[in-house]
Amino acid sequence: MVESHLFGHKKGAFTGAVEDMIGAFEHADKGTLLLDEITEVELSVQAKLLRVLQEQEFQKVGSSAVKQVDVRVIATSNRNLGEAISLGIFREDLYHRLAVFPLTVPPLREREGVVALLAHHFVEKYCALYSLEAKSLAPELINHFRTHSWPGNVRELENMVQRGVLLSAERTEIKKSDVYDDFFTDANSSGASSAHNADIKAATIEEMERDMILQALQDSGNNQQLAAEKLGISARTIRNKLRKYREDGYIE
Fold this sequence. Notes:
Layout: H1 2-7, E1 8-9, E2 21-22, H2 24-27, E3 32-35, H3 43-55, E4 57-59, E5 66-68, E6 72-75, H4 81-86, H5 92-98, H6 112-129, E7 136-137, H7 139-147, H8 153-167, E8 173-174, H9 176-179, H10 195-198, H11 205-219, H12 224-231, H13 235-247
Parallel strand pairs: 3-6, 7-8
Antiparallel strand pairs: 1-2, 4-5
Helix pairs in contact: 3-5, 6-7, 6-8, 11-12, 12-13
């Protein structure tokens, strides 16, 4: 399937190929193609990538016709390429063909100076996405961000800021407690939190928000005002959320 998406296929080339398909290289002719996580591509496909980079030609799956293309290729990987080559999962000749202008972007933990800039950028992004008033990050949270090891790199920072934007609700300052809370279960944590917290494995920010609101209501005996005070949001916000949860069928 990777080969098909890269180079295209002819109708009937394999089960499920019900019509001709144009691949990424053909779409990118006279332009630029980004090959993300290049080290995850199988060796057999790497050989065909090497050919198209060297000869500027390829064949669709199920076709003997040769197509010419002129494509600028940018390839990325989060692996150490030297290790990938030594492990035999990445072709050394393909690496040398790609590495015309090799660039290494240090992980976020080595770029303390950009952490605050990125965090503020993501705050603006998600305030705009959710149509919220402009928010700021509390100094305590910024300081914590600067000392965090960031095993999940920039994606982890973005997720944390998105969480903070949502859970700060109508407040204009995102506090550390909006982002770091025992309520959340961290996949990298070696120990468990409290019993009911350890069972919560929300897949999305919206699900985590819903679980927090419902848990707060349960803890406060369904008193919306008390639940709102516990979460640092307004009772009106809780009422609106509950209305949405009923419409979506999450609660009766």
